[in-house]
Write a structure and sequence with these properties.
- By secondary structure, the protein is of the alpha+beta class.
- It has a domain at about 105-215.
- The chain has helices at about 40-55, 100-110, 155-160, 175-180, 190-195, 215-225, 230-245, 275-280, 300-310, 325-330, 410-420, and strands at about 25, 30, 40, 60-65, 70-80, 85, 95, 135-140, 145, 265, 270-275, 300, 315, 320, 350-355, 360, 380, 385-390, 395-400, 405.
- Strands 1, 4, 5, 6, 15, 16, 17, 18 and 19 form a nine-stranded antiparallel β-sheet that branches. Strands 11-10-20 form a three-stranded mixed β-sheet, with no helix packed on it. It has a two-stranded antiparallel ribbon with strand order 2-3.
- α2 packs across α7 and α5 (about 190-195) crosses α6 (about 215-225).
- The longest helix has 14 residues, at about 100-110.
- It is globular and about 60 Å long.
Length: about 425
């Protein structure tokens, strides 16, 4: 069976020259707002060009919406170096985990419809999770020692990564079970994924730690069960179509290749090698049953900005309401108990809590080494160095696109510094 793209072996190969060309549309050199943030087009473009010039990415773009209008689009480098195709506005990008906020919004539309409660036990809606067990070590023969969890996993848990699920890939016993069952194999349906996921022991008691996991794919299955529709169909009808995101979706084919950005993988010598296209076409896009809730969307910066603007507009865009303002506020509010001190790598993103499918900034940067940002912003990113954030205090949303693996936080630090100017 084949695994989803984030689990595929990454390919190293030949390096090549990187050319940098910056394009932008902007009405003035700078834009000053009452909030005090000064947007400087030249500063943003210089950051994008620098990322390409120093070989950290082959191409990148950034789109900034502020105070009710687009204030800047910039692009540098190439979407496909080998084909000499520049990064452009209509370039299609794979966003990986930036799919997760979309899934969360879809699930919360059903919450507004009264289909579930956030603190409902997950097993009330997906019975396969009734008999979950927690891993607590191995016996003398190397077999996993399991016990019942301290409390049931709730829907809130799967939306804030406190369920205790894993994503596989580690050396723990639950990760070994994951590897045997392959829940996220692209040959599984979401129903089959969920049945297998329920057999993987929890790595933590529910509600005790922040553990990034396939919980958002569980959300996708919950959307199917509660709506009675295939997950992708529900998202298309309830989010993509109303927002006009015509260039966005999971199931793609070879017709998209002329606009699809190439993903580049960092090789041992520091060069960037193209990932084999065959993996993209044969994995979860070409006739395979899996539609992941945590990954898989292909989109453009313009399309994803429509989604970000809806969030900035507290659930509405151009007269189309997706969620109520109070629902957006719940999602964008830190949901983590202060006693929950084990938070894996989340603190590496700054002074962060976590809401429902979004990281939430709870304090200003504590040092110049941290990512720039504003208290109350909410955001997420994606494995090929993708990023978006919504900054209500500054009436701003930003979408940054790159297609570089592994995840490169330095690109995010620089684009944030370029936007905020500090």
């Amino acid at each position: 069976m084949r695994l989803a793209p984030f689990a595929l072996a990454l390919v190293a190969g030949l390096s090549g020259c990187v050319t940098s060309e910056v394009t932008h549309n902007y009405n003035a050199a700078t834009s000053e707002s009452a909030s005090g943030v000064t947007l400087d087009a030249a500063r943003i473009d210089a950051a994008l060009a620098g990322m390409v010039a120093d070989g950290r990415t082959v191409g990148a773009s950034a789109l900034v919406w502020k105070d009710g209008r687009e204030v800047h689009f910039g692009a540098a480098g190439q979407a496909d170096r080998e084909a000499a195709r520049p990064f452009a506005r209509d370039t299609l990008v794979q966003i990986f985990s930036m799919t997760k906020p979309v899934t969360g919004v879809a699930l919360m539309t059903l919450w507004e419809d009264g289909k579930f409660g956030l603190d409902d036990p997950l097993a009330d809606h997906l019975p396969e999770y009734t008999a979950l067990q927690v891993y607590e070590g191995k016996d003398a023969n190397g077999n996993g020692l399991l016990r019942a969890p301290g409390r049931p996993v709730t829907v809130r848990d799967i939306m804030r990564h406190t369920a205790g699920f894993t994503y596989g890939g580690g050396g723990r016993y639950p990760d070994q079970v994951w590897a045997e069952l392959e829940p996220l194999s692209v040959d599984n349906t979401l129903a089959q994924f969920s049945e297998k996921m329920a057999q993987v022991p929890l790595v933590r008691d529910p509600g005790t730690a922040w553990e990034y996991s396939a919980a958002v794919d569980v959300q996708a299955r919950l959307v199917e069960v509660l709506s009675g529709q295939p997950f992708a169909d529900y998202v298309a009808a309830e989010i993509f179509a109303p927002l006009g995101m015509a260039d966005t979706g999971w199931k793609r084919d070879a017709a998209d290749l002329p606009r699809l950005a190439q993903i580049y993988v960092l090789a041992a010598d520091g060069s960037l090698a193209p990932m084999e296209r065959k993996e993209w076409l044969e994995s979860n896009f070409a006739g395979k049953p899996m539609t992941m809730g945590g990954s898989g969307i292909v989109t453009t910066v313009d399309d994803y900005m429509l989604f970000a603007r809806m969030l900035l507009g507290e659930g509405a865009l151009d007269g189309k309401r997706i969620l109520k303002p109070e629902t957006i506020r719940i999602m964008a509010t830190d949901q983590l108990d202060p006693r929950m001190t084990e938070r894996a790598w989340l603190p590496g993103k700054g002074q962060m809590g976590f809401g429902l499918n979004f990281a939430v900034r709870v304090a200003p940067p504590a040092s110049p080494d941290e990512m720039r940002g504003t208290v109350g912003e909410f955001f997420w990113d994606g494995y090929p160095s993708m990023l978006f954030w919504v900054d209500p205090a500054n009436d701003m949303a930003v979408v940054f696109a790159a297609q570089k693996i592994p995840f490169d936080a330095t690109l995010h630090k620089e684009i944030r510094a370029a936007v905020y100017g500090k």
